[in-house]
Amino acid sequence: MFKNITRRASKFAAIAAVGMLAMNVQAAEPIRIGSFLAVTGPASFLGDPELKTMEMYVEKINKDGGVLGRQLELIHYDDAGNAAKARNFASRLIRSDRVDIIVGGSTTGATMAAVPMVEQAQIPFISLAGAVVVTTPVKKWVFKTPQTDRMAAERILKDMQERGLTKVGLISGTGGFGSSGREQTLAVAKEMGGIEIVADETYGGSDTDMTAQLTNIRGTEGVQTILNFGFGQGPAIVTRNYAQLGIELPFYQSHGVASDGFLELAGSSAEGLRLPASPLLVPDSLPESDPQKPVVEAYKSEYEARWDSKVSTFGAYAYDGLMLAVEAIKKAGSTDKAAVRDALESIQGHVGVTGTFNMSADDHNGLQADSFRILEVQDGSWKLIN
């Protein structure tokens, strides 16, 4: 009888030990962060700094002990800005790699291609794309870090209005970002009142000369200023054509070109143009009282020291996305997807490089138009205007 009891106790102890071992193994498993980015291709100026940022900070977080006592594992794919590839990679991240959260989607097209799968799989997704359609209307599992194109339009048109510029010539790319930016600019101008879009021109992604469109805008009666909404090579071409034509009207670009890389492409043709951007491009101009100053300065110095290249606002979107993911996982106390989603939605006062995020059930972006600063190109460099 005693032997049977002993054997039974030993059996239970063995089962318990196996169970504890399984729990320890599970606890030691890395937190898998999935990503698909346009690291190569025409949108590589977005995806390259985004990937470098995520790699750098995943390493840094892991050296500091990880999250919830677990290491982070970054699983990423290069979609080259192709929506079909993004869809396939999102599917792989969800079904094969079994990631806990996705931070990625350099472009609006790539992001929107992945959204249906994200929603079906019920996995938190933090997009790095700019168009308002990413989070408006609100999608339960989808969040984003860049300000929307609507916010950019609001900030630009407000600055124009303050300068007494009320008749706008609009030129925009026909891709997802440019098309959405055009729509939002037209809508905001109508709602603001006092601003009139008097010319409306577009260009394709493969176009190499936009002088015809700019000539049409310059010839429009009453036009006082020009706004280009686009990203990639297009805005740099528009800027050079603008200078070649000798147009002297005040010139604006969107946040889609807020990087030193754009200044290199546009050269002296960019002198005097304005655009909305995060304070990352002008950290020294921020007052000591600005809560973003230490965050911006730290990211800038760490990125440039690691990669020996200048920061861009696009890499900052990835920084904010990763840090929001980490905060949500800590807040949830686990990688349970529903708990992390709920934690993301409740984040308030999170100071990032792009702005201070205040998420809610009605706002999965958490930023306002005033998180944009207006910058002007002066002597080949960005200068803070307001």
TrEMBL record:
Residues 1-27 form the signal peptide. The keyword tRNA processing does not apply. GO terms for biological process: amino acid transport. Residues 30-379 form the Leucine-binding protein domain. InterPro entries: BCAA_transport, Leu-bd, Leu_Ile_Val-bd, Peripla_BP_I. Transmembrane segments: none annotated. Keywords: Amino-acid transport, Signal, Transport. It holds the Pfam family Peripla_BP_6. Belongs to the leucine-binding protein family. Coiled coil: none annotated. This is Amino acid/amide ABC transporter substrate-binding protein, HAAT family.
